[in-house]
Write a structure and sequence with these properties.
By secondary structure, the protein is an alpha+beta fold. The chain has eight helices and eleven strands. The chain has an eight-stranded mixed β-sheet with strand order 2-3-1-5-4-9-10-11, with helices on both faces. α1 packs across α2 and α2 runs antiparallel to α3. About 5% of the residues have low confidence.
C-alpha cells in the first residue's frame, strides 16, 4: 500500500509552488528558478498520483455496481474490473519507483574513461569502437560530448580515451556501463581465422561541482613536459603536456591533447576532480554494503559485465542475462538504450525489494 499521507503532501506542495510561481514579482530570479525546477521535478509524480487516484475511484464505482443493481451494468462491471485493477497495480508500482531515493549523482554530467585491456592491438581497436559507440549514443540523446584526451596506437586503436559528457541525466543512464567489456571475434591481424577474446574497461564517473570537491594546491604535484607519441605530434614543439599527481591519494592524471598548457591543466583538473568524487562515492558505497547485506552492486570494476560476440552478432549483458542479436545497432548507439533500460529496471526491482525487506 502506498503512503496516502506522503502522496497528499506532494500534491499540496505542488499546489503551493503553483501559487508562488503565479506571482513571480514577489520572488527574486534565483528563488524563482529554484521553485520552477522543483515544480518541474514534481510533475511526473503528481501526474502519476492523480492517475492512480482516478483509477481508485473508478474501481470503487464498479465494485459498487458489481454488488447489485442492474444485471447488465453488473455484467459490464465484472468484465471491466480485472483490466482496471491491473492498471491500478501498474500505477502503484510506477509511484513506488518514483518514491525510490534518487542517487544524488543521477542528474550529473559524467566523465567517460575507456581503456584497452588484455588483447594487445585488438583490445585497443575494441576500446576505440566502444568510445565511438558512446559518442554516437551521446549524439542521439543530444548530449555534449567533449573529447578530453585520446592515446592512439597508430592503427586506429585507443590505449585510452577520455571524454566529458554533458546533459540532463547523463550519469543516471551511463552509470551501469562501468566495468569490463569483452569482445569475441576474428582480429584483422589473425591469418588463421581464429576467434580471439579481448577486453576493454569502461569507467563512468559523475562530474562533481567544484564546491563539492575542494582540492588544495599543496596536495598537487604538477609536471610539465613535451607531448609525444600518436596524437601528440601536433603539439610536441612546446612543453605543453601536463601531469597532475594528487599526493594524498596517489591519483595521477595526464593531458597532452591541447597546444595550450593552460587548457591541458584545466582538462586534467576536471578528470581529477571526477575521480576524487567517485572515490568518495565508492568508499560510501563500501561502508553501506558492509553494514547491509544484499545491496545492489558491489562497486567492483574488475567484473566482466558484457560480451560483444561478432560471429553470432550478439551482445550479452551478464548481470541480467540479457542477450540481443543487434550487435551492429548496439555499436552505433541505436540499440544501447535497450540494454540500459533493462539494467535500470533490474536496479529498480532490487531496490523495491530492499525497501520491502526494510518495511
Amino acid at each position: 500500500m502506498l503512503p496516502a499521507a506522503k502522496l497528499d503532501k506532494m500534491l499540496a506542495r505542488r499546489a503551493t509552488l503553483e501559487a508562488a510561481l503565479a506571482d513571480p514579482g514577489k520572488l527574486g530570479a534565483e528563488a524563482f528558478a529554484a521553485l520552477a525546477k522543483e515544480y518541474s521535478e514534481l510533475a511526473p509524480m503528481v501526474a502519476a498520483i492523480e492517475g492512480y487516484r482516478k483509477l481508485e475511484r473508478e474501481i470503487a464505482d464498479l465494485e459498487q455496481i458489481e454488488e447489485g443493481g442492474d444485471p447488465e451494468l453488473r455484467a459490464l462491471a465484472i468484465e471491466e474490473l480485472p483490466a482496471l485493477k491491473a492498471r491500478h497495480e501498474s500505477a502503484e508500482r510506477q509511484i513506488a519507483i518514483l518514491l525510490l531515493p534518487k542517487d544524488v549523482a543521477d542528474d550529473r554530467s559524467a566523465i567517460l574513461e575507456v581503456r584497452a585491456g588484455t588483447g594487445g592491438d585488438e583490445a585497443a581497436l575494441f576500446a576505440a569502437e566502444l568510445y565511438n559507440m558512446y559518442q554516437r549514443y551521446a549524439e542521439l540523446h543530444r548530449w555534449r560530448f567533449e573529447v578530453l584526451g585520446i592515446a592512439e596506437t597508430g592503427i586506429g586503436g585507443y590505449k585510452e580515451a577520455t571524454a566529458a559528457i554533458s546533459g540532463a541525466g547523463v550519469f543516471a543512464r551511463l552509470k551501469f556501463e562501468s566495468g569490463v567489456h569483452r569482445v569475441q571475434r576474428v582480429p584483422v591481424t589473425e591469418a588463421q581465422g581464429r576467434i580471439h577474446t579481448s577486453a576493454a574497461t569502461v569507467a563512468v564517473l559523475p562530474e562533481p561541482e567544484e564546491i563539492e570537491i575542494k582540492i588544495d594546491e599543496k596536495d598537487l604535484r604538477i609536471d610539465i613536459f613535451r607531448s609525444s607519441g600518436p596524437g601528440g605530434q601536433s603539439v610536441n614543439t612546446t612543453d605543453s603536456a601536463v601531469r597532475i599527481t594528487h599526493l594524498p591519494t596517489g591519483l595521477v592524471v595526464q593531458q597532452q591533447d591541447e597546444k595550450s598548457q593552460h587548457k591541458n591543466k584545466a582538462k586534467a583538473m576536471k578528470v581529477l576532480r571526477a575521480r576524487l568524487y567517485e572515490r568518495e562515492r565508492m568508499e560510501t558505497d563500501a561502508e553501506r554494503a558492509a553494514a547491509r547485506k544484499g545491496q545492489v552492486g558491489s562497486g567492483d570494476r574488475s567484473e566482466r559485465i558484457r560480451t560483444y560476440n561478432f560471429p553470432q552478432g550478439r551482445v550479452t549483458d551478464h548481470r541480467i542475462n540479457l542477450t540481443l542479436y543487434k550487435l551492429d545497432k548496439v555499436l552505433t548507439g541505436e540499440a544501447l538504450d535497450e540494454v540500459i533500460e533493462a539494467l535500470v529496471a533490474e536496479d529498480q526491482i532490487n531496490r523495491l525489494a530492499e525497501m520491502g525487506e526494510d518495511a
